[in-house]
Design brief:
about 25% strand; globular; single chain; 6 strands; 2 helices; alpha+beta; four-stranded antiparallel sheet; about 110 residues
């Protein structure tokens, strides 16, 4: 090797493009719009996913299928707030939902 020359390797990451019928926009500081809401004197914890565009029912079904596969109750943990176009999950699933969204490419 000559003096001053560098051996560079370009490792290109594998990028897979998948189209979903929904899209989640990131916030202005490039984070995922997943929030925790505390209600009833901090006894009721809700995880809220905001900034959804597209088919929100398909997003809800994917969340139920991937995160709660054994939940067959009548009152589901995952609901849709049609007024604000949000997905609401009962419980603290903030980090689980963020990891799931990042794994899906959002």
């Amino acid at each position: 090797m000559q003096k001053g020359s560098r051996l560079t390797t370009l490792a290109s990451p594998i990028i897979k493009y998948v189209q979903y019928p929904y899209y989640i926009h990131r916030t202005s500081n490039k984070s995922l719009p997943v929030y925790i809401d505390l209600k009833n004197g901090r006894t009721r914890i809700l995880t809220i996913l905001r900034r959804i565009e597209g088919d929100i029912q398909a997003l809800r079904d994917d969340i139920k299928k991937d995160l709660f596969p054994k939940d067959h109750s009548i009152h589901s943990k995952v609901t849709i707030n049609h007024t604000n176009n949000n997905v609401v999950i009962k419980g603290d699933y903030c980090f689980v939902l963020k990891k799931w969204l990042m794994d899906k490419g959002f």
